[in-house]
Amino acid sequence: GDSVTQMEGPVTLSEEAFLTINCTYTATGYPSLFWYVQYPGEGLQLLLKATKADDKGSNKGFEATYRKETTSFHLEKGSVQVSDSAVYFCALSAPSFYNQGGKLIFGQGTELSVKP
Amino acid sequence: EPEVTQTPSHQVTQMGQEVILRCVPISNHLYFYWYRQILGQKVEFLVSFYNNEISEKSEIFDDQFSVERPDGSNFTLKIRSTKLEDSAMYFCASTEELAGVQDTQYFGPGTRLTVL
């Protein structure tokens, strides 16, 4: 079945460091890909998304490119801030033809801690 | 900005009791979802709901679970006889339909269910 695999956490970085969180997926067809962020004590917020191969999603300095050839959607940010400390979830949604309900399949989440 | 709301934020119940978790999706959205996140684990899909019926459900969503849209605004998840392993954070999500495809899912803040 469809699945998402993320790099293990926690990831601890100093402020202004470069961030990469790896995400790979297995899916039937051509899924849409998402990164959601969960700040402490809060729900899930959409960070960025990409709906087809070679699309780049971006938001708040974060970027991820949909790479069909490597089935990856790695999250990157050039300079992290303390306020970026959160848990990051990679997710996919299979196209409607294959998945009438439109469910999201999540990776296990990667906790990021940014120190001043 | 419209948002998904959930009540209560925290529910404590005794094993074997019935609980109802409530959600108010974004008003023009047509697809509704429940997910759960057991502490420290990934977010898991439970059920999707469209046009007043279940579109898809996971293996977790057994006969103890039911969903309902009792009026034009609320979307509820009922657990008939709670078990210890039902303790988790439950997230509601909703999305609109664009060109026949479900759009981005927006999540509520979650209800933390604790079964004693």
Describe the structure.
The complex is a heterodimer of chains A (116) and B (116). By secondary structure, chain A is mainly β. Chain A contains no helices and 12 strands. Chain B is globular. Chain B has 116 residues and is an all-beta fold. Chain A binds chain B through residues 34, 36, 42-46, 49, 89, 91, 93, 95-96, 99-109, and chain B through 31, 33, 35, 41-45, 48, 50, 55-56, 58, 91, 93, 95, 100-102, 104-110.
Explain briefly what this protein structure is:
The complex is a heterodimer of chains A (116) and B (116). Chain A has 116 residues and is mainly beta.
Provide the helix percentage of chain B. Answer: under 10%
Mean pLDDT of chain A: 91
Radius of gyration of chain B: 14 Å
Number of strands of chain A: 12
Element order, helices and strands of chain B?
EEEEEEEEEEEEE
Q: Helix- and strand-based class of chain A? A: mainly beta
- Termini of chain B, distance in Å? 37 Å
Largest β sheet strand count, sense and barrel closure of chain B: 7 strands, mixed
- Rg over C-alpha atoms of chain A, rounded to the nearest angstrom: 14 Å
What is the topology?
The complex is a heterodimer of chains A (116) and B (116).
Chain A lengths: L2 E4 L4 E4 L4 E3 L1 E4 L5 E7 L5 E7 L5 E4 L2 E4 L9 E3 L8 E8 L10 E3 L3 E6 L1
Parallel strand pairs in A: 2-12
Antiparallel strand pairs in A: 1-4, 3-9, 5-6, 5-10, 7-8, 8-9, 10-11, 10-12
Chain B lengths: L4 E3 L2 E4 L5 E6 L6 E7 L5 E8 L2 E5 L7 E4 L6 E5 L8 E8 L1 E2 L2 E2 L3 E2 L3 E5 L1
